[in-house]
């Protein structure tokens, strides 16, 4: 019995008892209990594959538990579909957005809750509600923008607005801050606190302990499908939570893992970058005056110039939605440049001579897309098929003519071992892997190709603390082998930890660039101002390259 009930108080908003769920050989949830007090922010943490998404998917009616009971406000309920969850006042903001990319923001928000037979009236009302919600919570978004044209950060706003508009009283957020800048994350947390004041109950899944400490009231820890601990946030520490999560003492963790786990500022000594490496040289990829407009004629990239050099990581920082995604699309051959030119070796790419992804891959360019579900994997294919996507004509797939299942399985098993993808099951469909493990497989596939140029978007989004260190290590290793890397991340800490140079994008332009000499507070605040479009980066005189062959480009 709930202590609240004994005390004659209100029952918890959510009570899960004895929830179990098995997928084939994997016991994703084992006898899980969870109580979430009404009007509280409750964190759920755990390593990749610990069972967090499965648990909240059961609450949201995506999966039916094999055993266990769900109570909402003290009443036992059967939630067998999302519609049933919504009817219980449960809203979900997904790790991977469930929006229709060809619909506008307004249409997406209306979808599934059209408000009766008079669509036009429903649309007018929804528009008004949407604008009210946007203003009230600072979630500005153009109702007429097509969702597919929006950057992931803006798509997330639509997801939140959609749930709020349906009157969610229990809101589940699965890794909501992965695409946000620190500033946007702060604003999201203000929104969550505001919702809490209104009595909304919030379940927050995140890998970031500093977020747990900043915004939650209670936190529950999962490990290998089981619920291993519940804590009041005020009476725990990031160290204790990290230990509960990984099942070993924090003291045994390497420094960078600790930094990622505890969210401590990585300032001062001990930066993970190998600063003593020889200076990088030739430009492997050059971009000059790149411009691109979307299907609605809106300019997304203006006069972008940059150089990716061998053996160097160029970090591209910026608030989501400022052209980074579009730049990745154009550089990876998904979109054609409308003005300007890209040079890779002897190959000149422009509007009249475009190059598609396959040709670029043949030129040694690999791409880890920001949105792994839309661009990185085919969820209905097995892991071993996904492990050669784009490289299916290579030796890993067979003899070059027919795909050999044995070769695919063997290749995939090796990748899974090296990148610690769990479960190590090459024949499992991609949809059967947790988000972080899908990400590891995409990275494994692209890194294994030993590219000369790597474009990598949000590499550690949704990835647990142990895997972050590993992925960062692999990216640095690739750089040290001479690969030219463009790292797009909304995590400023990630850019400061990995990049040799940083360029900042704002409103489709590169507004400044500087070499990073270490992680210092000055870098951070200067880049923050640049991201907000307030200042230009000042290149410190000492760090300015004496005779850069690329002077006049993004390094100017
Ligand atoms: N549809 C499915 N089919 C088969 N196995 C699945 C399915 N969904 C999840 N699993 C497995 O269940 C386990 C728990 O996955 P889940 O997505 O709940 O973990 P998670 O804690 O949310 O991880 P992450 O932090 O990586 O998102 C994993 O081993 C995963 O491979």
UniProtKB/TrEMBL annotation:
Source domain of life: Bacteria
UniProt keyword annotations, A-Z: ATP-binding, Cell membrane, Membrane, Nucleotide-binding, Repeat, Sugar transport, Translocase, Transport
Single GO cellular component term: plasma membrane
Localization terms from the record: Cell membrane
UniProt topology in membrane: Peripheral membrane protein
Molecular function as annotated in GO: ATP binding; ATP hydrolysis activity
Pfam families associated with the record: ABC_tran
Domain ABC transporter residues, every copy: 14-249, 285-532
TM segment ranges: none
Keyword Cytoplasm: no
PANTHER family: CARBOHYDRATE TRANSPORT ATP-BINDING PROTEIN MG119-RELATED, GUANOSINE IMPORT ATP-BINDING PROTEIN NUPO
Protein name: ABC transporter ATP-binding protein
């Amino acid at each position: 019995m709930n202590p609240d009930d004994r005390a004659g108080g209100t029952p918890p908003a959510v009570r899960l008892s004895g929830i179990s769920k098995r997928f084939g050989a994997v016991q994703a949830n084992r006898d899980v209990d969870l109580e979430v007090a009404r009007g509280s922010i409750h964190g759920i943490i755990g390593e990749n594959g610990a069972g967090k998404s499965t648990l909240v998917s059961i609450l949201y009616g995506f999966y039916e538990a094999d055993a266990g009971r769900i109570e909402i406000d003290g009443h036992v309920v059967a939630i067998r579909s999302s519609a049933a969850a919504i009817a219980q006042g449960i809203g979900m903001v997904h790790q991977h957005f469930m929006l229709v990319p060809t619909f506008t923001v307004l249409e997406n928000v209306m979808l599934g809750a059209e408000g009766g037979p008079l669509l036009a009236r429903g649309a007018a009302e929804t528009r008004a509600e949407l604008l009210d919600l946007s203003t009230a919570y600072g979630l500005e978004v153009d109702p007429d923008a097509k969702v597919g044209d929006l950057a992931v950060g803006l798509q997330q706003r639509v997801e939140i607005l959609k749930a709020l508009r349906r009157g969610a009283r229990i809101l589940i957020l699965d890794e909501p801050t992965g695409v946000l800048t620190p500033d946007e994350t702060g604003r999201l947390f203000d929104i969550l606190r505001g919702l809490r004041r209104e009595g909304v109950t919030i379940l927050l899944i995140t890998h970031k302990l500093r977020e747990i400490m900043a915004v939650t009231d209670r936190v529950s820890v999962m490990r290998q499908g089981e619920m291993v601990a519940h804590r009041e946030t005020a009476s725990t520490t990031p160290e204790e939570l990290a230990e509960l999560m990984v099942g070993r003492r924090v003291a045994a963790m390497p420094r960078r893992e600790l930094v990622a786990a505890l969210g401590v500022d990585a300032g001062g000594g001990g930066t993970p970058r190998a600063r003593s490496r020889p200076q990088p040289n030739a430009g492997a990829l050059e971009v000059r005056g790149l411009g691109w407009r979307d299907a609605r004629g809106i300019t997304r990239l203006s006069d972008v110039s940059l150089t990716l050099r061998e053996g160097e990581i160029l970090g591209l920082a910026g608030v989501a939605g400022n052209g980074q995604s579009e730049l990745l699309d154009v550089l990876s051959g998904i979109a054609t440049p409308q003005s300007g030119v890209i040079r890779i070796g002897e190959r000149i790419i422009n509007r009249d001579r475009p190059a598609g992804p396959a040709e670029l891959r043949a030129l040694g360019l690999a791409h880890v897309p920001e949105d792994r579900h839309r661009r990185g994997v085919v969820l209905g294919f097995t892991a071993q098929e996904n492990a050669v996507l784009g490289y299916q004509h290579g030796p890993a797939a067979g003899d070059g003519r027919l795909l050999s299942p044995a070769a695919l399985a063997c290749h995939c098993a090796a990748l899974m071992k090296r990148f610690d993808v769990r479960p190590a099951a090459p024949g499992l469909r991609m949809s059967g892997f947790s988000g972080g493990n899908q990400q590891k497989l995409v990275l494994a596939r692209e890194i294994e190709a030993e590219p000369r140029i790597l474009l990598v978007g949000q590499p550690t989004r949704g990835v647990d603390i142990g895997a972050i260190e590993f992925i960062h290590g692999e990216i640095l290793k690739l750089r040290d082998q001479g690969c030219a890397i463009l790292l797009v991340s909304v995590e400023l800490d990630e850019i400061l930890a990995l990049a040799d140079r940083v360029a900042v994008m704002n409103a489709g332009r590169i507004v400044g660039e500087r070499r990073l000499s270490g992680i210092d507070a000055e870098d951070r605040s200067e880049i923050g101002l640049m991201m907000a479009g307030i200042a230009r980066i000042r290149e410190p005189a000492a760090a300015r390259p004496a005779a850069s062959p690329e002077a006049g480009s993004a390094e100017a």
